[in-house]
Amino acid sequence: MNLKKIQKxxxxxIFCLHNQIATELSSDINLINQFNEYxxxxxxxxxxxxxxxxxxxxxxxxxxxxxxxxxxxxxxxxATLLHDDIIDxxxxxxxxxxxxxxxxxxxxxxxxxxxxxRAFQMIASLNSFRIFKILSNTVNTVVKGEILQLMHAYxxxxxxxxxxxxxxRKTASLFEVALYSSAILSxxxxxxxxxxxxYGRYLGISxxxxxxxxxxxxxxxxxxxxxxxxxxxxxxxxxxLHAMKNSNKNQYDFIRKAIKMGNKQYLLNDILKIxxxxxxxxxxxxxxxxxxxxxxxxxxxxxxxxxxxxxxxLAKSSLKQIC
Length: 323
Prior knowledge:
The chain is an all-alpha fold.
């Protein structure tokens, strides 16, 4: 079962999801509606809300508020992307111009804030203090992850522990809370809650590891991926950290110099040669596979169903970008 088959399994829900996102983003302010059109035209794969829908259906959720949860999780993700692209000075998003390039920095920041507030309005409608608490804590965690990454930018002394902490906070924590909230909304037992929470965390970590791998993977690059963006922005990810750890002194010194300089695209080819020499992309991919296996093993706590099977395939689907 690939991602298209997963989407087909819940096609009606995805149709409703898309429409509700459009509704929630609509406003009497024209600029917000312009962003609405831009966002919906350049939408991603809906990985997080799909995970919410599958999890709640696997748990036989008895309320239709699962769609509200799926939408607000996606809105939080959208807001982080708008802000991320400004922080990273990314000119493109999914092969198209980034929002801040089209609308300007100030407008993009404010609309990102608007989307955050809309998400919190929706959280209140769930009438669950537990969900409100864990979601609000997670948004705080995501922002702290961004700050940590900014603090470590262009820092060649960052450790793997620092890196894992950043990707957990920035990426995996939102996956984790999406699945955890799904369990709470579905009135799951404590074993199922823990299983889905762990599934989300492992899925999120693997998702980011693969993205970081793709940033240096020439063989699998496409028009939507610009090789070396992380290096240009001073982000030290696992492929680069692995290459540094396993390189000789000259290579090590060269990588440290490239990190400190930043925005030096002409150094990228030499960096890539060192990475391929030490199999750094393969190492990162294997680490992601370990996390995917852990995520899938968590699902054994759930009853057999097409939705549980789809959650397993969702975890595997990210690998297909690079394998």
